[in-house]
Amino acid sequence: MSIHNDIERVFYSHEELQAKVKELGEAITRDYQGKSPIFVGVLKGCFVFMADLMRSVDLPCEIDFMAVSSYGKGTKSSGVVQINKDLSFDIAGRDVLIVEDILDSGVTLNYLKGYLENRNPASIKIVTLFDKPSRRKAPIYADYYGYEVPDEFIVGYGLDYAEKYRNLPYIGVLKHEIYE
Ligand code: IMP
Ligand code: MG
Predict the structure, then answer these.
(1) Burial state string for 83-116 with b = 16 or more CB within 10 A and e = fewer than 16
(2) What is the number of the ligand closest to the CA of 162?
(3) Domain residue ranges of the chain, discontinuous segments joined by +
(4) Closest Cα to atom 20, ligand 1: which residue?
(5) 55-99: per-residue pLDDT in tens?
(6) CATH architecture of 15-149
(7) Measured from the CB, is residue 69 less than 6 Å from ligand 1?
């Protein structure tokens, strides 16, 4: 009963992901010289990406997490954003980097960005590993992104389908019979 048997095809291998995440970390290191940003991960999807990203960033930095839900168990956004866990740090005057797994409709991040802007940070930027610009419904863009992906539901490297498959070390597409 291997989870790998549920995968139709691999989109990005573990090695490709590692190289891409390293690039993103280096870009952030360059852009934030002399600063000490705070990384705000959007749970749960961010956790694998964020762990690798942080280790590619050579800056004094801090991390915190937020948990929001806009998705049910399916593959389409419900459009409703609910805060399930808030920050444990005060971000006033801080440089904030929101870390997402994938930017899809943008409804979640648009809400979250506005919510955090109200706390007067010095800056807010968004870093996402994947971007699905064709699905965008809210006026939101990523300041850093790894890959632009087509309108297909992907899993692995933190991304789930019905809470499963986050532990796949690569990004893949599930076999059709799984989405039932
Ligand atoms: P949105 O941008 O508000 O539509 O929602 C983004 C969130 O939807 C992401 O953080 C993921 O949790 C989830 N999501 C969107 N597309 C996918 C996908 O292809 N695979 C897994 N999760 C996805
Ligand atoms: Mg999800």
Answers:
(1) eeeebeeebeebbbbbbbbbbbbbbbbbbbbeeb
(2) 2
(3) 15-149
(4) 154
(5) 999 999 999 999 998 755 555 555 668 899 999 989 999 999 999
(6) 3-Layer(aba) Sandwich (3.40)
(7) no
